[in-house]
Amino acid sequence: MPNDPPSTPLVAMGRRGFLLTAWPWRAVGYLLSTVPVVVTAGVPPALLGLPLLSAVAPDAALGERVFLAVLGALLVSGLGPMAAIPLARLERSRLRLVDARPTGSGHRRPPGRGVGPWLRTRYTESATWRELGYLLLLAVAVPVLYTALLSALIFQLGALAAPLILLGGDGPMALGPVKAATPAAALPYAIAALVLLPAVPYLLALVAGAQAALARALLQRGSGERLQAELVEVARSRARLVDAFEAERRRIERDLHDGAQQRLLSLTLKLGLAQVDLPPDSSAAHSVADAHQDAKRLMIELRELVHGIHPRVLTDRGLVAAMGELADRSPLAVTVEADLPGRPPGHVESTAYFVAAEALTNAAKHSGADRAGMVARWDAGLLTLEITDDGAGGADPGRGTGLTGLADRVAVIDGRLLVSSPAGGPTLIRVELPCDPNDPSSR
Amino acid sequence: MRSERSVVQVVLAEDGVLLREGLAGLLAKFAFDVVAAVDDAVALRAAVAEHRPDLVITDIRMPPHFSDEGLRAAVELRRTDPDLAVVALSQYVELSYAADLLDSGGGRRVGYLLKDRVVDVADFVTALRQVVDGGTVVDPQVIRQLITRRQDPLAKLSPREREVLTLIAEGHSNAAIGRRLVVTDATVGKHVRSILAKLDLPQTDDTHRRVLAVLAYLRGSPTAPEAG
């Protein structure tokens, strides 16, 4: 967008009024603060690289040279990252001087706590080595580049001041390749320097911008790392959404159960008691009896509704009991085999339950089956649930949203849903969910 | 001694305030004496120790954990005092709970009912009296589930016999079954004998022992129909 505030000096240079913005000053600040970093960054490679330097010493034998060279290379590559990682972090924060965009580190999060996992992660990821490369590059290139830049600036200032200095009578003065002895001779140079004065901020911004671009390219996440980080974040947020959805279902179920259902039960009981008090065959008794019947029907409806939101038996007694209840409710003859060492974590339990419920419902509604079976097993960190029916088959995840929705739910917790349903049956739906039983989390 | 009391003394344990008050009102109306109404299993044990009631009505799930504290307390109380009548109220059918309770104290003086059953006031009170008088009361819903689970061998029964079996399991005597189905006692007797024979159950005229036998049969593990 052309009207956005520029994010780097290179962009800002192309805008009108560049000289009046803070950008030239930011560039100067960036360049000046680079110097101590380069000095610091130069020390470790210089120290670690000493054997390398002595390897090229003229009076050493070949064996010694090879040994020193290898030792130097080992030292630089072995201990270099230790110096590079903190310096690179400093460089990333310094980048804010000349770059408005946020900069993320390309480092991965170590898999565990402690020094071992951290070291393993850091030494095996490309981000660390890019940082080391950046700092070596900085240590080599910056002294050369800044010296040239400083010489140019000094030359310009000298040319600008030359007529005044020469007026004072100190002559002749060297201006680069030429010598000027009188103010008049120095004047063209001074005028040229004056005309070129506005170019100085541009030059500084150019150098700062180029250096920042290099830093950005080497110190930030690469596109693959960025994509991976985004994927991880998407997966996490999806899991969070599902968890929140699950928690919400439980909350609604609990609220309805503790509130509306209890009240309705109490109300129905009161109507039942009122019926006892009224003379039989009076019109009041009939009205109350009607109301009592209605209330009972409403109790059943509400119970079914709440059960659909989240079955209480699942919360209370776990997956095996809930599967038994599913079998009891199903119009089909359902066998249940369950062999679980304990209760899986809550979200795994719910997912498995809803898969089983959906599969049984489909079998009863669409397949024409009259028998179904459910088998739940846990083995080596994997909960496997298989639902079979002897119906006509032809279940297609692409056709209904039911199976697709289930596959999504299963995928969120890193599980797999497999459907085998040839025409003519039988249908087998298999879910594999990684989990540890007896894990009380998220319950 | 309990048997000398004219009024049945009840300890009531239920954590839902509304239902507890409703039940207390219902019991008072039907001349039960509610000596204590508590809201958790610990208080239930204390109240039973203190009042030595004839009947305990308890919710199965109660604070603090809402697992099966009420049921476990009931089973324990029956172990120390098999004459204590206990009716457990449950939110939903849980066959293993019903089984635990029926296995305590030889299955006499126990009831397992769904909470929703209390709204049919007259039936509920009848069930309570049956339990106090030494009977076994199991919620029809439980029987229905047991029967669906044991569909296979029950296929041998005629629809009418299955109806009769359900009523036996619910604890009705031959006379009561006859009244329900509007048939003579003799006809009921014939059905009952036929059922017991078909299911290989001991022939007995003792209603209670027959109920327990039928329940035990129904609770037996079903032979699995082959899936797939």
From TrEMBL, chain A:
Pfam families associated with the record: HisKA_3 (PF07730), Sensor (PF13796)
Domain Putative sensor: from-to ranges: 82-219
Gene3D superfamilies: 1.20.5.1930, Histidine kinase-like ATPase, C-terminal domain
Top-level lineage group: Bacteria
Keyword Membrane annotated: yes
EC numbers for this chain: 2.7.13.3
Single GO MF annotation: kinase activity
Keyword list, A-Z: ATP-binding, Kinase, Membrane, Nucleotide-binding, Phosphoprotein, Transferase, Transmembrane, Transmembrane helix, Two-component regulatory system
SUPFAM superfamilies membership: ATPase domain of HSP90 chaperone/DNA topoisomerase II/histidine kinase (SSF55874)
Catalytic activity from the UniProt record: ATP + protein L-histidine = ADP + protein N-phospho-L-histidine
Domain Signal transduction histidine kinase subgroup 3 dimerisation and phosphoacceptor, first and last residues per copy: 248-314
Regions crossing the membrane: 23-46, 66-88, 134-166, 186-219
Protein name: histidine kinase
Organism (species): Actinomadura algeriensis
Species classification: Bacteria, Bacillati, Actinomycetota, Actinomycetes, Streptosporangiales
From TrEMBL, chain B:
PROSITE patterns listed in its UniProt record: HTH_LUXR_1 (PS00622), HTH_LUXR_2 (PS50043), RESPONSE_REGULATORY (PS50110)
Domain of life: Bacteria
The entry's keywords: DNA-binding, Phosphoprotein, Transcription, Transcription regulation
Entry GO MF terms: DNA binding
Residues that bear 4-aspartylphosphate: D59
InterPro entries referenced in this protein's UniProt entry, alphabetically: CheY-like_superfamily (IPR011006), NreC/VraR/RcsB-like_REC (IPR058245), Sig_transdc_resp-reg_receiver (IPR001789), Tscrpt_reg_LuxR_C (IPR000792), WalR-like (IPR039420), WH-like_DNA-bd_sf (IPR036388)
SUPFAM superfamilies assigned: CheY-like (SSF52172)
Gene3D superfamilies: 3.40.50.2300, Winged helix-like DNA-binding domain superfamily/Winged helix DNA-binding domain (1.10.10.10)
Response regulatory domain segment(s): 9-130
Domain HTH luxR-type: 150-220
Database matches in Pfam families: GerE, Response_reg
PANTHER family given in the database record: TRANSCRIPTIONAL REGULATORY PROTEIN NARL-RELATED, TWO-COMPONENT RESPONSE REGULATOR
Name of the protein in its database record: DNA-binding NarL/FixJ family response regulator
Organism: Actinomadura algeriensis
